[in-house]
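Lab notebook page, bench 4
Experiment: in silico fold of construct C2
Operator: M.H.
Input chain length: 162 residues
Purpose: comparison with the prior construct
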Amino acid sequence: MTVESEQLRQAMRFWATGVTIVTAAHSGVQHGMTVSAFTSVSLVPAQVLVSLAQNTRTHELVMQSHHFGVSILDSGQVELSDRFAGRVADDMDRFTGIETLTLVSGTPMLKHALAQLDCRVVTTIGSGTHTLFIGEVLSAESGVGTDPLLYFNRGYQKINPI
């Protein structure tokens, strides 16, 4: 017997995570989405994992391009998180008015994020409604350190040092 989706959702509200924007581009189309299901997998080789819902435009672009970018957000980027979470019309270009950069693959990433990772997909694992993409990190950049944007119990949070 497995847990109902709402029970899992309630429990997972108590897992604090950082907030990222995962982006992809293919054939002149770019898209991105807010993702908290992100983690480092390996330092050698350098690999990270993102989990994307299979019914999203970003998922489709990652499948087509075999690349994705990860922009790690700082605590002052709530508006960007909301925008890429779909709290704007889905047909609107989420990148409008946002400075981006590219590193190796040409995938657009948010220029003023805490860090950017440019990744090439090396492993794809379908699981339930999502796909796990393991990406080899082709390039990584980090900016001036500020507090990361955190998500906990259905709301944005900041680090409060102990």
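Observations: Residues 26 and 65 are 5 Å apart (CA to CA). The chain has a mean pLDDT of 93.
Next step: discuss at group meeting.
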